[in-house]
Amino acid sequence: MQLRPQSALAIGVAVLAAWALIETRGWSIQTALYPRVVATPLLVLALVETLLSLRGEGPAEAAQTMDFSLSTSVTPGLAQRRTVTAFVWLAGFFLIVVLLGFSRAIPLFVFAYLKGQGKETWTVSIVLAALAWLVFYLLFVSLLHLPFAEGLLWTLGK
Amino acid sequence: MRAFVVAVALCLVASPFFTGPVAGQQPLFAGKTVTIIVGYNPGGGYDLVARLIARYLPKYLPGNPAVVVQNMPGANSIIAANHVYTVAKPDGLTIGAFNRNLILGQLVKAPGIRFDMTKFAWVGSPASETTVLTIRNDLPYRAATDLLKADPAVIVGATGPGASTYDFPLLLKALAKFNLRIISGYPSSADIMLAVERKEVDGRAGSYSSTKPFIDRGLVRSIVRGRASVPDIAQLPMDEDLVPDARSKAVMRLRSSPEIIGRPFVAPPGTPEEYIRAYWDAFTKVAQDKEFLVDADKAGFEINYVRGDQALQISRDVLGAAPDIVKVFTQFFSFN
Amino acid sequence: MLETFLQALLEVLRWNASSFMLIGVVVGFWVGLLPGIGGATTLALMLPFVYRMAPVQAFAFLLGMHSVVSTTGEITSILFGIPGEATTVATILDGHAMAKKGQAGRALGASLTSSLIGAIVGAAALALAIPIVRPLVLMFGSPEFFMLSIVGIAFIASLSGRGPRGMVRGFLTGCLGLLLAAVGQDPQVGVQRYTLQQLYLWNGLDLVPVLVGFFAIPEIIDLAVRGTAIAADAPLGRLSQVRDGVIDAFRHIWLVIRCSLIGTYIGIIPGVGGGVAQWIAYAHAVQSAKTPAERDGFGKGDVRGVLGPGAAVNSKEGGALIPTIAFGVPGSSAMAILLGGFFVVGLVPGPDMLTKHLDVTMSMVWTIVVANIITVVASFVFLNRLARLTNIRGALLIPFLALLTFLGAYTSNNSLNDIIVALVFGGLGYLMVRYRWPRAPLVLGLVLGEVAERYLWISVARYGSAWLARPIVVLLILLVIGVIGSSLRQQGTLPKRQGAVGAT
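Predict the joint structure of the above. Result:
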């Protein structure tokens, strides 16, 4: 028996299913039927998957899925680092959107990523950042009048 | 030379005072943009009304501003209402268009509501809604009272609690003792019509405007109406007339009250009076605009502008309902 | 009837109507291309302009715009793995995989051609089905709708993973999707379920932010990890040509036609159609693989995985027209808006549309066909150039892909919460890809969950337990058993062979 990261996902889902079932306590039958009917097999299957994954995954059991596989062209260590970095960039983008508003966040993010992560030249970074903002502004603000909040730093300052 | 410089300097400093009166005469909305925040996604009834108004409003607002519509859907427009109440600036350039039943939601203390409908600066409602109960044309019941002894029970399809498709027949069943069986859960009122056609259900309640195409087509006929009325259905019996006691009448009337303010438009609390009056004036004129009426008719809306102050009074009346009536009402009405 | 058929074509081709159609096509082209600007939203935005047009003009415009949106939505799916529309998600699986192998051009050609054929076949099937359409739709009641959603999920779940382990995971993610669909107010009584006190979740999880995050973010992460251009696996850096894809479409013409028919008939069923058709077509394409090794190739760049959804996505729009015009019941959300357009120009949907106003119906059918032909032909002009985007350094593309993803999530409800959802599902999607849990069944569970629950309750409330004995329901139950059974049988022989392969 080996605890692998794969098992963690399965256990997580099992916990979610159990929580979902517990939440249905006290609901009327009309509210609770569907979640119970769905969460029960979910719990069962998640536990089955946990057990199977703890048993290990030999080539005979390697489940191929009708889905894409992550590329293996890069060493696992480097891949891990780059993955985390990528997620951090995405989370960071979200953060500055919340703090500064879309309009300011977009050129900032594009510039920061191109210069900081992509190691592009100053010209390329600035030009593309400006281009991104321009297209965003023309299309989403000028043409479609979609609402974009100002950003927390501005509204909190009031 | 020095005097000259001083004179010029004085002129520059004093110039704002000279241009003062001229600036003050600029029309209220000149060069600005008015935003209508709709609590639903594009394509629904509330959105369509807002967009229609947005087309004609610029003509009648002083300064002819641009008017744009923004969608802020979620929680049956509670999210948009909360936003206009707490976040939007009361600068006269933002108005909200929400679900007419929000006042009822406030009455039954639905969760998540952070506004008080009576504290908004009311612009008014350009259209009213009427509710009718319709049954399939091939059924033998003619008069509303026939439904009291219908056998087997007439099956009415509904979308879910909180919608007129559900609430209207529910009150008829519980208070007027109609022999109805309500099957709820249909994704939309259009799906209910399909169910009517394949005889899975026998009828549907809902807004007259959305049911009219099916009435015209001969699929269903209307049999009972709510309080708000239009000439086409005025002769139908009203639900309140079909119950004997005053309390039931009051409960039904409570359900119907938002219908006369069928498409409420409000501005954030504290919006300056002059903007609100400008809107009242503009909305009144739009509601009389010939082209607007033609378009509204095509879209199936019943245009009947209720001015902000009257709409506010109606909202106050709803909230001022007697507690025992509210208690009975809460049993039947849940805000969804 | 043939006369009306041809007359309608002439109506459409007259300059008056076709000029509006062209404008619609141009608008629709960009709408489909850009994630975040949905076809339904734009239709609604255009509706006020429609007030002044005559019926044929109005529909030329609305339909011209709408029929094109799905076609171009496939372009971003293939090039970047970002779903341009909620209906073009299945195309990502093999389409983007092909792009990674340097075959973006081929994938684009294949998907556009199959979309075109799908539109034509769909239109033809529609025209032929008109006499029987009303009785056909009326046969499907709430019990049947419920069973159809079960069939859909069972079908996808059983096909999406190979081996008994794969099937466990397939049904696992399917159930997870179904559970996620329960978030929000329950349709029967309106009680809040799993909404964690958030107003935002009252209406449940919104599909677009989930899809955008679920599919686009893992691809972006993978691109960042690889550190290369998208088409890094292209042999000798040579990109394939669009015409290769066109040839592929004709080489597998029967598959394309079958998937078109699948799309059309699923589109006819109101409520279930929509996002499901593409997955069923995809699963059918997978089924057409003759050996397990071939089946493995799906998800990694098999052109049939692009042809299937491509055909279904367009034909389903033709199918969705049917309940809209024949019953006034919109077959999809875009159709709901189109329906608004009907009333605006004074047309009453109903049996009349198939008899008295058959000419209008026919012109709509033709508009879809002609609009698609124009789009596809126009696209071919610059598709090869578009494909070259896959040769650009990943680092240059990533910020723009992230931008598109975030905007795509945000603009569905104009709420920042949607971006959080996209990020959360992006993380989940990444983990699922990493640990080889199929994503398709989750999507289907999420899409069909609410429908399934509503119709289950309606069936029980209306018919008691008698609904189980209805003929079509019985057929569908047998179908579910059959699908799962045959999948199990097919999979049953695999571990032995895999063991042999693993040993070498």
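Residues 2-503 of chain C form one domain.
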